Amino acid sequence: MRTERHSKHGAPVTMRDIAKEAGVSVATVSHVVNNKQGARIGEETRQRVHEAIDLLGYRTNALAKTLSVGSSRFIGLVADAIATTPFAGQIIHGAQDEAWKHGYVLLVANIDGNKAAENDAIAMMLEHQVRGILYSTWYHREIEVPESLHQTDTVLVDCFSTGSGLPAVVPDEEQGGKAATQELIDAGHQRIAFINTTTPSPALTGRLAGYRSALESSGLEFDASLVISAVPEQEGGYEVTSAIIASGASAVFCHNDRVAMGLYDGLRVRGLDVPKDIAVVGFDNQEVIAAHLRPPLTTVALPHYEIGAAGIRVLLGLEREQDNALYLINCPAIKRQSV
């Protein structure tokens, strides 16, 4: 039986070491080592990989049993900084709890935008024959999918890639925008402003579409002058306060809770009261903001925990397949005292 050798740095030999020695990709090494059915690999390439394995003394000691059955009880999650953001780390919690419920353990790699770390993390997960990989970003956006993710079952979480063929689990931005606006309509408001973001994103277009849909459903005319753009930060909300007051709106739907916090500040400086003078609804349900403003902010939650959990269910085939491979997760309204 081959004994395990170590690289010149003292670490066990990995698939990346074999790939470098043989002049091939990590995915090719994985296919050869695991005898991947249907992989189009020439005999000469296979021979180079086997020669590199013999030369470096590689063996899959960590998961020998896993290799015999072709998969493991691990699921990978490659995250772009979500572990360190104020609330999006709930994606990891949701995925972890759901994975455990079905007998799997989550392997998490927080790569923080580092492409080399991302490649290494995916290679490690392929080497360990994970059941599949969740690939997640810290805010909802379109991405370019790393090529190596096509070597295993992959689900995109809080992101999507048009034309990739990969399923994506994302928040329903339009439904969330409609829910936020509906809170204000139900409270009797008819002239409702919307502070939208300046950042191109699904949130920009989706929440605006939801705002318009709620107005239309209630028989209220859309007025483009009531849609005011602001940077999606506290300063943005503060800076457009004068425009909001000048619009004559009795209520405002803010793109996110940080914008709402800035609007609160701007209204307070001008001696106006929330919700007596102007009602305000946010988006995100960022607890450190929404629950502690005075008055506490009515908002719409980005359901990060459920997005993570749903990602696991989609990966395991436990969700009904969607024709467009896009799984929209409901964004619920969180009622407080700002309306």
Automatic annotation (TrEMBL):
Domain HTH lacI-type as annotated: residue spans: 13-69
Entry keyword annotation includes Ribosomal protein: no
UniProtKB keywords: DNA-binding, Repressor, Transcription, Transcription regulation
Family annotation (SMART domains): HTH_LACI
Transmembrane segments: none
UniProt KW Thylakoid keyword: no
Single Gene Ontology MF annotation: DNA-binding transcription factor activity
Top-level division of the source organism's lineage: Bacteria
Protein name: LacI family DNA-binding transcriptional regulator
